[in-house]
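Following up on my earlier message about iron/sulfur cluster. Here are the inputs again, as you asked, copied directly from the submission form:
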Amino acid sequence: MECHEVDKNGKKLGGGVSRRDFLKFCAVMAASIGLPLGAGSKIAEAITDPNRPPVIWLSFSECTGCVMSLLQAHHPTLDTFLLDLISLDYTRMFMTTAGHTATALRDKSIEENKGKFILVVEGAIPTKDNGIYCKSGGRTALDILKDVGPKAAFIIALGSCTVWGGAAAAHPNPTGLKGVDKILTDKTVINLNTCPPSPYNLLSTVIHLLTFNELPALDDKGRPKFAYSRTVCNNCERVYNFRAGRFAWQFGDEGHKKGYCLFALGCKGPQTFSNCPSILFGGAGAETWCVGIGHPCCGCAEEGVGWTLPLHQLGDPLYHFPPSHFARIDEPVGMGATAAAAAVVAGSVGIAVGAGAVLAKRLGKEEKKAKELSEKEDATVAKEE
Amino acid sequence: MGINRRDFLKGAAGSGLLLAADASPALAFGPRTPKELPPDAVGILFDSTLCIGCNACVFRCKQANPHMALRPEFNVPIGGLKIHDTPIGLSENTLTVIKLYKHDGGHSFIKHQCMHCIDPACVSACPVTAFTKDPKTGIVKFCKRVCIGCRYCQLACPFVAIGFKWDEPFPEMVRCQLCDHLIPLGKYAACCSYCPTGAALYGRVADLRKEASRRLDLEYGEPYRFPVNHIESGRKSFRPAAKYYPNIYGDTEGGGLQVMVLAGVSPLRLGLPDLPDVSNAAVSEGVFKTIYKWFAAPIVLLGALVYLAYRNTEEYRKPKDEDD
Ligand code: SF4
Ligand code: SF4
Ligand code: SF4
Ligand code: SF4
Ligand code: SF4
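Thanks, got it. Here's what our run produced:
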């Protein structure tokens, strides 16, 4: 990374960032992927290494939303991200060259960095009719992926389309779109869900790979745990309304205006694993993520939810673990009459009988006492005599 | 002489009264004819497999019944709505509560409330008929003016559904009245009208029973549509069927209940009592009526007491010849 000049306030003068800002950024990065503070310097070392492995970015059946989302990122901004942080050797979107020149550059970089580069795939892959529905430079997406994939050190599937087909593969899926891990079955694919994906999840993953040269911890669906281990509800700012039954029932009603939980409008937050509420959406500002702006989560990060379940059908709190404040069945409260009303009847009769018996017993006891006393007295008298 | 336990039991058994405390009084005294469900009776079907534990029902119930359910100290408006406490059970401030049953690999929620028994023990136990059953809707109602505060109803209710306002100078018995005060306004049970999932469903008991048995007949995982809020609301939701425990709790339990429960586990594990099919009220009234037939009970009781007193004073009555 170049060292840029800074003005007297520490602000960058040309492009790029000040060293101070850069180190701060590295520390923040370390925190966001759940690393200890000291890891920041290691990250700084890795991403300033001039020999860091390049990133090759392939685009297939997609809407370019993933790149648009990347454009929104402001910490760091796109130029810093592309020019300083990662060494992006090929991307169709941002290259000034095009056509065969660009393809040649891509192939050159792939050959030079065989087994070292990071492959980012954006977009689903048509598989029907040998994948003829998506071509680039005369080759099908299927062919390119099968060729480039095995040469990469790490593969990142960016966006829901790339992970399982997403919106593109919604029913009836005429071109037989599939996700990357269905095609490169013998490689580990890092799946970064959501549509579009968060640029920060991508950045964090790339930086993790550069710094440690190994995969971040992944869950059983290949998603990095630092970003996809909790449901949307778990981090949602409205979840306290969910637990207190305060819902928006219609768009624009009182509850909606007050920011109540959107579950009743079909929010899929309870069954979708993603960190949308905590890192927000594309860095567009405070509270800008689906639920934050008042729209229910559509489950874009979860296969079988987004573009599969109807938008306003109720979500299924499959993974919603009840908080500990719930009253338990066996909460120690007073016991009711177990032997029921018959026993009450019997009880009151019993009390009457009991009272009578005690009365009678008392009579007897008093009698006995008196008798014993007189016997004792008699005995004493007899002894004295 | 004093009376020992043996003599006491003998005496009591001799009087025949101990039979009343027997565990199965129905054998000795037949229950009276059970009460019938009015044809237009209303109730609630609670389907635990749909409940998400959101507590909307608890909160809306408190809001709809502020006169009895909200404690003044919790009656704080926050953003226009009243906040609620986190109740652990039914009480004088809580007419319905969602409880959690956790088991290996899962959990179920259960909504506790007055079950609006078809043959209610509270109505039977009340000596002054402060509790009455509406002949049309079947809703069990409470009249504060009549109640003498004996709390027999509390003892009699098998669901421990009745609370007592201990901290008030003129207390009343507090329990769910199926929001009967909302019916004239064209509304229905607040808990059901705000349940987002359809877990608490309001409607005619006959319709609810039909709906419940339809759900029990579903294949596990089979997608089905079901009504939400009110069985006639027209609002429907859609889901794959859960695995049901094959019992509609309240169909026959306790002589039938107007609030019924469907669940994925045995309702007994959800804290509902194991009740015989004949209501306690029918049994106890049967016992009572038999006891008081021909004024038998007081006569027998008097006889027993006289006998006991006679036996216990036996020695006193003996002529004390040796001393004299
Ligand atoms: S259901 Fe939606 S709005 Fe409600 S807490 Fe979950 S994510 Fe947030
Ligand atoms: S909140 Fe839901 S719909 Fe929105 S981006 Fe996240 S997973 Fe997708
Ligand atoms: S549940 Fe209890 S209070 Fe309600 S009707 Fe039955 S006996 Fe009465
Ligand atoms: S019917 Fe009304 S009073 Fe009864 S639990 Fe529901 S909201 Fe509360
Ligand atoms: S409102 Fe419905 S879903 Fe929510 S806790 Fe009550 S019964 Fe369950």
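One observation from looking it over: Residues 296-312 of chain B form the longest helix (17 residues). Hope that helps, and feel free to reply on this thread.
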